[in-house]
Amino acid sequence: MDIHPSRSDMARRRTVPLAGDMTQNPILVVGGTGITGRRVAARLTAAGHPVRVASRSAARPFDWHDPDTWSAALAGVRRLYLVPLDGTRLTGPFLRRAAEAGVERVVLLSGRGVDDPDYLPPGHPAGIVHVTGEEALRASGLTWTVIRPSWFSQNFSEGYLGDWVRSGDLRIPGGEASAAFVDAEDIAAVAVAALTEDGHQGAVYELSGPASLTLAEAMAEISLASGKQVRYTPLTVDEFVTELVADGWNADEAREFGLALTPLARGLDARLSDGVRRALGREPRSFAAFAADAAAAGAWRA
Ligand SMILES: NC(=O)c1ccc[n+]([C@@H]2O[C@H](COP(=O)([O-])OP(=O)(O)OC[C@H]3O[C@@H](n4cnc5c(N)ncnc54)[C@H](OP(=O)(O)O)[C@@H]3O)[C@@H](O)[C@H]2O)c1
Known about the structure:
Blueprint: H1 7-12, E1 27-30, H2 37-46, E2 51-54, H3 70-74, E3 79-82, H4 87-101, E4 105-109, H5 125-139, E5 143-149, H6 162-167, E6 169-172, E7 178-179, H7 184-196, E8 204-207, E9 213-214, H8 215-226, E10 231-234, H9 237-246, H10 251-260, H11 262-265, H12 275-280, H13 287-296
Parallel strand pairs: 1-2, 1-3, 3-4, 4-5, 5-8, 6-10
Antiparallel strand pairs: 7-9
Bound molecules: NADP nicotinamide-adenine-dinucleotide phosphate (NAP).
């Protein structure tokens, strides 16, 4: 369920001027080289905000597993976007360090399904990271906004499904149900609004695209946009594990991957969410628009 500010809150929203010395405070983008983080960083930079990217490949390396790198990343920061790595062991300690460093506002990337105990198999790490991460955020005492996106459209272009799509045959245990894929550009736009405007504090924005598509329909859109024929071959989790192990995967990791896709197969991401409209006052971008942009950028060229 969406928890969000009312429409009257929308009307009161305004860009928070980073007045005085705040103009010099960088906004920290943790995970700022990833699918959502680099779009958040680009949008903030384009809007004139100073940005600091935190990741292992950043100019000043930040490693979640090396807390000695955290303080330098947090120095002078008042607002941050957080792509979590380990909600249980790392998000809480990092947010405590952030509060000590003077951070006031956090926008956390979580995931849809976090409020449904049956969304993923019990104990699946992809669910735990967000359940425990959101708990740590709420306990932090910081001002926060939570973003719970559906499956990213960019999974098919720059994400973990891209290689299958480029091969022309998406072979995964995704079933025949539809899902309301969301464009990472919309995720980033919501994150930037929550970082730079008033009126998003305490909001949980569940984000989806404007329509649900089956994987076969998604591949048809990509085929149309790219001119390259891509099909979808639904596998069982066991078939998927067998294929990945034949490709050299560790069997446990292959099964974990396959099980992470079961919400898709069960249709748990078919419903539409209105978080983009609530946060931005406009409709989300369509899958066709995503596919056109990704094709133009050469995402599916061999
Ligand atoms: N994909 C989906 O459909 C979907 C849907 C809902 C929610 N989500 C959630 O979205 C999150 C992923 O977000 P994303 O796609 O924007 O990120 P991403 O593309 O997976 O990138 C991960 C980011 O974290 C950094 N990173 C990885 N390991 C690190 C480490 N040890 N120390 C410091 N930085 C590290 C990476 O940079 P370096 O490699 O440079 O360190 C990169 O910037 C996950 O929590 C996932 O559950 C995904």
